[in-house]
Amino acid sequence: MRYLPTHSKHDLLIGCCVSAFAFSAPSPAQDLKLGKWLPESMQVHGFLSQGFIHTSDNHFFGHSDDSLSTDFRELGVNGSWSVLPDLQLAMQVVWRDAGQTDEAGLRIDYGLANYNVLSTESSLLAIRAGRVLTPLGFYNETRDVAATRPSILLPQSIYFDRNRDLAISADGGYLYGEHRTDFGDFSFNFGLVIPRTDGPDFMNTVLRGDKGEVGGDTSWVARLGYESPGSRVRFAVTYADVLSDFNSSSHPRNQGSFHFNPLILSAQYNAEKWSLTAEYALRRTRLDYLNAHDVAFTGQSYYIQGAYHFTDKLEGFVRYDELVWDLDDQYGYRYPPQLGPSFSRYARDWTFGLRYEILPSLMLSTEYHHVNGTGWLSRLENPQDETRNWDMYAFMLSYHF
After folding, report:
1. Of 233, 224, 230, 329, the residue nearest 276 (C-alpha)
2. Which of 128, 78, 59 is nearest to 386 (CA)?
3. Residues 82, 88, 89, 94, CA torsion sign
4. pLDDT digits (tens), the chain, 401 positions
5. Cα(113)–Cα(6) distance, rounded to whole angstroms?
6. Of 168, 277, 258, which is closest to residue 219 (Cα–Cα)?
7. Of 59, 186, 312, 401, which residue has the fewest beta carbons closer than 10 angstroms?
8. Which CATH number fits domain 10-400: 3.20.20.370, 1.10.10.60, 2.60.40.10, 2.40.160.10?
9. Cα separations (Å) of 372 from 86, 349, 388?
């Protein structure tokens, strides 16, 4: 199995909204002989994954310290329907459990309409509206299905799992364009959206442990992309302006607005048996309090990952992933102790992983992390007594149809 480009062709535009469609598995409507009741242009797919996580110290997705946590599972069903040649509808419903960061519950990951304003052999201009997958970096649009991720856990410095719902999709509209040339494919995405801010970990972080409300405000996201012929080389630049308001019900001084501005640079090279991927993010965060001093800092994230395909069914990877929350205080020496230890302001992660395709629709993945720092751990699961140097072992069995 190879790593899948996330935005190279028009078919994959809709495939991003129906992630399992990236595989050539037949539609269950065909498998179950339901075609006579469903339109021929309708696709239905799904996925199921169960993860097992053990950590030497700290907790990740459940009580994983010195025990085996099974609180990491994902179940989803998605479908798409070409109502008209230029109008497609797509939706995905997910049930997910990821410890205290995502306590089991049903939600709509995306539900949208895609209309092709212009479609020729070389160019495409489309409008998407509804709850739309957010175009951040290379992997955000396909992170929902385990089989479409390059690893069990995406690089946490850029693709935070503790704030998955905030990142994966938002409500609003996008303008998408693509132009295919002999030199490669060029694409752009621009959207005005309202972010989803009801994730327990995000609310806990913004409200600093208080009870209250967090609501999304008008935000925007833009991405430019390039892909060479044959998908050998890929580049992307992403920028977003994410806004939300918060109001603590117990502390009047803890109310205001949250501003987040990530700039992500992405690059990938794909050879016949190996690939090299790197992404870099500069993240500006600002909290504007109505009755207190504002807080602002700029952080940095990056990773570099090499993958090798030993056989058609077995592949491995190695990755170095680094997160710094504040470039002016990279080791957290000036971070207030009452808010957390100094090493909660960074994380440096070496990861080694393997994945094996047992069947075309069934995959087993395993990976090992050696981490210095706790910068991407959830404070809900680790309220105190964090350990700076720790190891994590993860296993996942995933099925898709």
Report:
1. 233
2. 59
3. positive
4. 333 443 344 444 444 444 333 333 334 444 444 455 667 788 899 999 999 999 999 999 999 998 899 999 999 999 999 999 999 999 999 999 998 888 768 999 999 999 999 999 999 999 999 999 999 999 999 998 888 889 999 999 999 999 998 999 999 999 999 999 999 999 999 999 999 998 888 988 888 878 889 999 999 999 999 999 999 999 999 999 999 999 988 887 788 999 999 999 999 999 999 999 999 999 999 999 988 888 999 999 999 999 999 999 999 999 999 999 999 999 999 999 988 999 999 999 999 999 999 999 999 999 999 999 999 999 999 988 899 999 999 999 999 98
5. 19
6. 258
7. 312
8. 2.40.160.10
9. 50, 6, 6
Segments making up each domain of the chain, as ranges: 10-400
What's the CA gap between 144 and 159, in Å, rounded? 12
- Of 395, 340, 341, 398, nearest to 366 by C-alpha is 395
Enter the pTM of the model. 0.89
Q: Tally the C-alpha atoms within 13 A of residue 343's C-alpha that lie toward its C-beta.
A: 15
Count of CA atoms in the C-beta half-sphere (13 A) of 243: 11
The whole-angstrom distance between residue 316's C-alpha and the CA centroid of its chain comes to 21
Q: What are phi and psi of 17, to 5 degrees?
A: -85, -15
Residue type at 91? M
**Contacts of 105 by beta carbon, 8 Å cutoff, 6+ apart:** 95, 96
Asked if 90 and 18 count as a contact pair (C-beta separation under 8 A), the reply is yes
From the list 12, 207, 203, the residue with the least C-alpha distance to 90 is: 12
- Report which DSSP code applies to 330: T
8 Rama class: left (phi>0) / alpha (psi -120 to 50) / beta: alpha
Kindly state the tokens that stand for 301. 């994230």
Helical H segments across 77-206, by residue range: 164-168, 200-206
- What CA–CA distances, in Å, run from 27 to 32, 80, 91, 129, 146? 9, 11, 15, 25, 19
